[in-house]
Amino acid sequence: MAKEVTLLFHNDDGVKEIRTGARHVGCVGARPPLDHPHVFFHLEEGGEIACPYCSTIIRHDPSMAEDACDPAGTLFEAREG
Fold this sequence. Notes:
The protein has strands at 6-9, 17-20, 24-29, 35-42, 48-50, 57-60, 69-70. 0% of the residues lie in helices and 38% in strands. The chain is mainly beta. The chain has a domain at 17-71: HSP40/DNAj peptide-binding domain (Sandwich), CATH 2.60.260.40. A hairpin with a 6-residue loop joins strand 5 and strand 6 (57-60). The chain has a 4-stranded mixed beta sheet, with no helix packed on it. Strands 1-3-4 form a 3-stranded mixed beta sheet, with no helix packed on it. The relative contact order is 0.32. It has no helices and 7 strands. It is globular and about 30 Å long.
């Protein structure tokens, strides 16, 4: 079985929609310490979901790479320390 990518997004800039090639996604709202509870979703092929906390729409775009997103700056990368 192929490894599936889960991308986690933040929306500090308040964009309406984030597009991604990943089907397993999560939303943190704004970056910590202003984040909301971290929620995770499975997107159907070409589907979309609205985060129940911040209303950001996350849309699956099958033309994008699995680890890509648009806008690119919305990818959340937790840092240790």
